[in-house]
Design a protein that fits this description.
By secondary structure, the protein is of the alpha+beta class. Helices cover 26% and strands 15% of the residues. It has one domain. It contains 13 helices and 16 strands. The protein binds heme C (HEC) (2 copies) and calcium ion (CA) (3 copies).
Length: 463
Amino acid sequence: MFKKVVFSFLLIFLFQSCGDDNEYVDVTGKDFPDLTERLYAGGKTTIFSNTSNGYSTPAPNLSGSELSRHLEGDIDFESVFVTAPANINSGLGPIFNNSSCISCHPRDGRAAHPQNIQARSGLLLRTSLPGSGSNGNPIAVNGFGLQIQNQAIFNFQPEAEYTVQYEEIAEKLADGTIFYLRKPIFNVTNPYISFPDNALLSPRIAPPVFGLGLLELISDNDLINSQDINDSNGDGISGRLNYVWNPLTQQTEIGKFGWKANAPNLLIQCAAAYVEDMGITNYVFPQETGHDQSNGNDHLNDDAELSDKILHNAVFYTRTLAVPAPRNIADLDVRKGAKLFADLQCATCHTPKQQTGFSEISALSFQTFYPYTDQLLHDMGEGLADNRPDFLANGREWKTRPLWGIGLTFVVNNHTHFLHDGRARNITEAILWHGGEAENAKQNFKKLSKEDREALLKFINSL
Ligand code: HEC
Ligand code: HEC
Ligand SMILES: [Ca+2]
Ligand SMILES: [Ca+2]
Ligand SMILES: [Ca+2]
């Protein structure tokens, strides 16, 4: 009896000493989610790392032969391509954006928003004309295609140079703190032929490439059932899938990769990266991206430049990188942040849990994992809009980004630039850019006390 009184007295004391203006003080944490089950963020492909190798480690459950294939893919991902003819890694360009996968996805992570927009970087501009083609596809711009290659090999001319200007936008939080966001406005200059006035531009930064084999294996049924196209549950959020053209199967399929879910699978995504980003032809895309342009045809009879084996190894590599486990999951602030993440409506799009179906790669088969994405498109408002449709994704829609591993961004990549063009300089800025279907979530965030805001950030940084 006496003991019990002393104990409650102690509890009251704790409440008062650390919780003055804090709505959510719960020293026991009983109201906060238990994050233990989310520790294995990548199911059995999870690794425990808080180092700069956090994104670039093979899944620990690969078989011996799978691991050796992964390691071959690792070399291919790092290979620097050079001008043809050459004995190895031949065929860069003639027009391109960068010369290796790793140069845009450093340490298998994300590129920084470029300091020098003219230089080779992890940022590229897609382009198209208004409307859509017979396969629902964006319409290529005559002489420029669907992506602007701003680099070229010796004796060739890039399609154009990139330019960027910044607009400053102030966001004031309820507690008076002001954040100054930077909005990049991209354009092109010095085109090799005139660039049409009505051509649309979509800036894209290179995202991290770990854990993607798991995302690729979420079943079509699960994805289709998670849509809420007409917002029938009335929560203001209406995610839907993108459906995109697969040039190999000659069919429309669910879009899964790219910032607008514009690629159906990792094979198409990687094959497109070789041909568009680096100018390396392959069996999926056997022609140089600029073959019908005066600046983009090298007249060499060497297509396809890439062996099928290298393409498949690179795909296998992006399927089988380990997912880093969250850190500090027992920390009370982190758990409080997880509760806020759900209460604020963040978790409605950044769905914590997903599962894979069967895969020939046994390491990926039937895994429960925690990517924090619903893989659906959402209207994110005018501020983030690129106004360029990409299959079903309209100019305001983007695919929910996975948040797993996000807390290691600085350790791995030495910056904390987020969103599709790297405009946000930290996680708070990324949240303040949310609008459209995420407007409520953002307003909820802006109302938080400093302490609650910090708990939310601590949770996101624990991922
Ligand atoms: C010029 C920079 C650049 C190069 C070079 C590059 N990428 Fe990318 N990568 C990007 C960008 C930008 C995106 C986002 C594309 C989009 O939204 O459509 C991306 C997306 C991806 C994705 C999808 C990630 C996701 O979460 O949706 C994969 C996988 C990928 N790249 C693999 C590769 C491979 C493999 C190579 C080498 C063959 C490569 N990339 C070369 C810039 C690059
Ligand atoms: C309506 C769906 C939706 C809601 C609600 C939502 N997000 Fe997002 N989130 C997205 C989409 C889509 C993106 C990518 C937007 C872009 O890059 O233009 C994103 C991007 C992010 C990013 C940057 C990720 C990266 O890899 O660059 C962070 C961090 C983030 N969200 C956190 C939050 C938090 C915290 C909340 C709650 C306050 C929240 N989100 C609510 C859909 C949503
Ligand atoms: Ca080439
Ligand atoms: Ca082009
Ligand atoms: Ca809804």
